[in-house]
Amino acid sequence: MITVNKILIFILGTLIFSGCIGENQATTDPTLPSNEQSIPEIKLLSFSSVYIQNNYNENIIPVFMWDNVPGNESDSLKDHLISLEYDWVENAQITKTNEYLFCWDEVLVNELFTTSQFYSEDRRLSDFLQKYGGDWVHRAKIEKSDDSRTINVFDENQSLSLKLNYEKTGMILTTSDGRTEKFLVNTKCGKLNVYGAENRTIRIFTDENSIMVILRSNTSAVLVDTFEENIPVKEEDGKIILCDMRSTLSHNSTEKYYAVYNLSITNNGLKTINFTTNDMHLRMGDQIFNTSPVEIREVYPLFNLIAESATISPGQNLVGCIIFQVNLPYDESFQLMYNSTPIISESFERTVEALTISEHFNYSTIFDTPQFNVDSKKNVDMDDIEPDDLYPAVGSYPLVWPNWVNRDTVEFYKELDSQNLLKHPENFGRGRLPETIITYELSVTSNQNITIMSEDRLIIIDDGNKEIINREMDYVAILSGQTYELYSENIPQMNYSNATIVWTEFYNWYGWGMAARMTLNDQIVIFDEDQNMVIAMCNTNHFVS
């Protein structure tokens, strides 16, 4: 099954704006508790507002405990698979093996990870490489040596090397910085397969049939047949429990807002500081929000979260994100706190203003395209589309795509998908409710001196010559005088001082695994120092699986 964490390969750039607790805020107050006497320097490296809506059901039904299969819960697993219409498993054997990662012999050379990653074998390799290399592997090239013993994955700046040992029983992965990892290799059906962690795959098989359950992490598993389907996982008292995938979805959708702060925390004092995320709070008027644990599937990209507790020695620096679950996307009254000390950011008011303008702007006026595009079979008015116009018969979904995104786009899909979900009855067997997901992220950087340069991509570098954005684009609107000029390539080089950048990313999914509608849009808007919108970029991707 295509999942959010796998498809969603759009990537939040590194966005920087400053705000810190300066020394004038760090004076010792005898009324404060002792743990507040030593205050680190804290800078905001990025701010993101995240909105999530989905129809996940938090009261999922357990099926079996991972450690008890094979064992006394094997029958529970078999009964569950029979209910999913795998009738042949009644007399099947069950074994537990190392995690299957990818087939060495099926790695294609000179291929980019584009649409090919949606096929299961390419996707497994893509997931494996991303785990050890990073997001750059999706743009990488692949070369295999003449003797097929070495696979090199590389772009202009980074590389991974995969090399088989002489006996072809093991593989060594080497990263650009010299780190190495070892993996097991076995031959099955005449092909070399690469395996990872021990006891992470349950194989259910007969002479004629075979399926696998792979435990990807303590919160993620998949059922592998012709395609992959997610299996919900929860951990209780150190035990890993796999649950019924049909119990994960409901007719009711829930929505959540998160405020994400990427922080640089430096100990400029002479004594060690014991930092915990509980020291951080977000104040909004009379309300106080504490840091929130967030399920991985809820927030994309996977932010580099700060550990719950850390010891920071004098001169040491700690970088990472903290997340607050809040009740609205952002507000001028947001005040980040370290215990009772505010973290000052003079640019935050400017940030909120840019966010407000960018997410309520009518981009049809500058992109010269309507807000939505609808499948040609739908008889709707393109200038005035209402969700009621697009409701299909039960078992289908409306093929409607956004050409550009603002807050109205989010509200439209909330109504379209939520009301369409109510038309689907509960199903039995392998059939189940459609999954519906909306992710809407806004990220901001303020007061940046930037240079824009590109031919067919939008590339932005800061005044330290560091690339902060490199994105594909469909078209770019550039303010010239009182009007916008539209470009699809060959953007002229431009320089802006004290610019504000707003990056908006929208993801929508509706459907059933390999029968779903999916859209992925991202936009970048740049404001000059007078808060004029001088550049707007849009990139759209639509899929039907």
Which short descriptors sum up this protein?
single chain, 545 residues, mainly beta, 33 strands, 44% strand
How would you sum up this structure, described in words?
- The chain is built from 6 helices and 33 strands.
- A hairpin with a 3-residue loop joins β13 (220-224) and β14 (228-236).
- Strands 1, 16, 21, 26, 27, 28, 29, 30, 31, 32 and 33 form an 11-stranded antiparallel sheet that branches.
- It has helices at residues 4-7, 74-83, 120-133, 348-359, 364-367, 407-421; strands at 41-56, 62-65, 93-97, 100-103, 141-144, 150-154, 159-164, 170-175, 180-188, 191-195, 201-205, 210-217, 220-224, 228-236, 239-243, 249-266, 273-276, 280-284, 287-290, 309-312, 317-326, 334-338, 341-342, 372-374, 400-402, 435-453, 457-462, 467-472, 475-480, 483-487, 494-512, 515-527, 533-544.
- By secondary structure, the protein is mainly β.
- The protein has 3 domains: 34-55 and 253-342, Immunoglobulin-like; 62-229, no CATH class; 364-544, no CATH class.
- The termini are close together.
- Helix content is 11%, strand content 44%.
